[in-house]
Amino acid sequence: MEREFLKDLLTTPSVSGHEEAIQRKALAFGKRFAGAQLTDPSGNAISVVNPGAARKVLLCGHIDEIGFVITHIDGEGRLHLTGAGGVRPKLYIGSPVQVWHEGNLVSGVIATSSDLLKKEKVEAGDLLVDIGASSKEEAQAVVSVGDPVCADAHVRELLNGLFTCRALDDRTGAFVVLEAAKLAAEQGASAGIYAATTVGEETTGRGAYYAAARVKPDCCIAVDVTWASDAPGTNPSDTGEVKLGGGPVLCMGSAVNKKLNALLAETAQELDMPVQWEIATGRTGTDGDTVNRAWEGIPMALVSIPLRYMHSSVEVGSWKDLEDCIQLLSAFLVKLSKELEAGMSFCPVEAE
Predict the structure, then answer these.
(1) How far, CA to CA in Å, does 310 sit from each of 8, 23, 102, 213?
(2) 276-280 β-sheet, strand order
(3) Is the terminal CB of the chain with fewer CB neighbours within 10 Å at N or C?
């Protein structure tokens, strides 16, 4: 597992709709193991193991992050914003941010004031970015309406093998997808493995649809993050008990294919690897929902990475959980390859 590659991804901005720079890095990594690579008009990057294989599995890890986009530059040179994805604006008051204009970084801060701090509900439109400009003209010389804005956070190592940064949702999933595909190729998986770092999950879901409709896989594994119930203010009775360092999280849900889930659980047992479970009676809130309803319908399962403080600039994850997810998925892909060759059906009931 190449930690420095993930750290590079985490420090590369990719506000939803602005994923080009980080996708170039995903393609460069994928070139090391892929027999072919695909891109599409949505902005996806797909690295393919065994591109000539008849049976195909799609891996989806979205590479976009939540953030903001500039909507207006006022007369004092302050930047007005709208949200891109599920941002929680109150968390950004008084925080440093990065504005990206034509590949160039412009540093700024979210202005703070007593009135703003007193507001019960803070909207994205209440936030103003101060880049130090004294006029609209001075600001327009370095930034433009439409430029993306993200939190200015850096990777920091914590105790007990934990680490923190912004956008672990879902750079960690994209990282796992690429690493698992690479390892599965080394372990001799024979199925076509389409490792997709998808775009737009936080806003439109377009990337997952483009990938599924183009690849037309037999099945899909979505890799995303999920709420850790060991964070303050959480309740394990909501969707299940999930702890950082507790291992990969599998999902029992109406949208999740039971045969794929059983094969994942069986693989974990063979690896003597503990797994955790979450419950999703409706939508999972991941790319898996989009893939499930693409083309003629694609069976999917969800592998999640425990995460504290989701949709903030201080998300916390575990290196051990990432390593376990990579090991589980790579072994699963080898096992799934054999099942697909044997004619595996994903139907929970069979017509006579």
Answers:
(1) 20, 22, 28, 29
(2) 36-39, 45-49, 192-198, 56-62, 219-227, 300-307, 249-253, 276-280
(3) C
What does the pLDDT read at residue 237?
85
* Torsion from C-alpha of 160, 161, 165, 167, nearest 10 degrees: -120
- Two tokens at 329? 């998925």
Catalytic residue among 65, 201, 202, 315: 201
Tens-digit pLDDT profile for residues 73-91: 999 999 999 999 999 999 9
Strands of 156-157's sheet in order across: 156-157, 162-165, 315-318
Prior bond to 287 cis, omega within 30?
no
| Distance from C-alpha of 265 to C-alpha of 274, rounded to nearest angstrom | 9
Point out which residues pair with 280 in neighbouring strands.
Answer: 253
| Residue found under tokens 């750079």 | 171
User: Could you tell me the two tokens for 352?
Assistant: 């006579």
201 flagged as catalytic: yes
pTM of the shown model = 0.96
Inter-CA distances, 222 with 31, 97, 157, 162, 273, Å: 21, 30, 27, 23, 20
